[in-house]
Amino acid sequence: MNESEKTHFSERLRTAAAAKQAMLAKLRARPTLNDPNLPDRAARRAEELKAVRAAREEAKAAKVQARLDAAAAEEAARLADESAVLDARRSATRERKALSAAEAKAKRDARYAARKARA
To answer: What's the predicted TM-score (pTM) here?
Structure first.
């Protein structure tokens, strides 16, 4: 075997320590760059968030309003149906009373005519 291929224990320890140091260097926090546009980006992001939240709130309010409008329209339709049914009942009652009155008058007239005929 070649002597250069042989590694000593201390050399392997140094190589392992260097590998550990390289792994730790990857995990260490790096200094951040001071971006002069960072406050502008943060403000712009905050404005975008406000706009999105406002749009969502408007959509939610529109949905609630649509639900309320639908309920009001349904209630109006129900009341109109009830009113139509009530009007139909009233007109039927009026017709029935009118027919009853006409029949009663016809009976009266018939009795009167019969009485006149007998006399």
So the answer is: 0.44
